[in-house]
Design a protein that fits this description.
- The chain is mainly alpha-helical and about 190 residues long.
- About 90% of the residues lie in helices and about 0% in strands.
- Helix 1 runs antiparallel to helix 2 and helix 2 runs antiparallel to helix 3.
- It is rod-shaped.
């Protein structure tokens, strides 16, 4: 950069000399005191420009460059953090899905167990009802048999009374009583 400034300073120093030479000064470069004063003025101008304009400008450029680098690093860090969080959220989602799946399976298993228990309870209740009905039927059958025996006995007595009244012979009487008793004792 200093070479460029030096080149500019050299050109600026030659311009006034070229202008004088064209006025009839006697050559391309006229070496007099004004050239020396112009060179000193130009050097001071370059010094002040360098000191108060160019250096602060370079410092601002460097500061801006550092800010851009810092922003890029922060952006990369933020991107890495976002990627990390995305991965963490993905893992949490997978864990939540797996937990929901296990809860669903447990609920289905519990429902199947409850259904099995209810079916067994219904079967047991049905068996108990069937046994109760059988016992009631057997009891009704026993009562009916007892009533039937009582009726048969009454009929036998009635028949015996009638026969006795007709004054049957002793053998006939015995035969009728024996038949009636056999009839009563026969299982039905």
């Amino acid at each position: 950069m200093s070479k460029v400034l030096g080149g500019i300073a050299l050109l600026l120093g030659w311009i006034p000399g070229v202008a004088r030479a064209s006025e009839g000064g006697g050559g391309f470069i006229n070496l007099d005191w004004s050239l020396l004063i112009q060179a000193v003025n130009f050097g001071l101008l370059l010094f002040f420009l360098w000191k108060f304009l160019y250096r602060p400008f370079l410092a601002k450029l460097e500061e801006r460059s550092q800010a851009i680098k810092k922003s890029l690093l922060e952006a990369q860090a933020a991107q890495a953090e976002a990627e990390r969080q995305r991965e963490e959220h993905r893992k949490q989602l997978q864990a939540a899905y797996a937990e929901a799946q296990s809860i669903r399976e447990a609920a289905l298993k519990e429902a199947a167990e409850e259904q099995r228990r209810l079916v067994e309870a219904a079967r047991a209740e049905a068996g108990r009802l069937v046994e109760a009905a059988r016992a009631e039927i057997e009891q009704d059958i026993r009562r009916a048999r007892q009533e039937l025996r009582k009726e048969v006995a009454d009929l036998a007595l009635t028949a015996a009374e009638r026969l006795i009244r007709k004054s049957l012979r002793g053998e006939d009487h015995k035969k009728i009583v024996a038949d009636a008793i056999a009839e009563i004792e026969r299982p039905r």
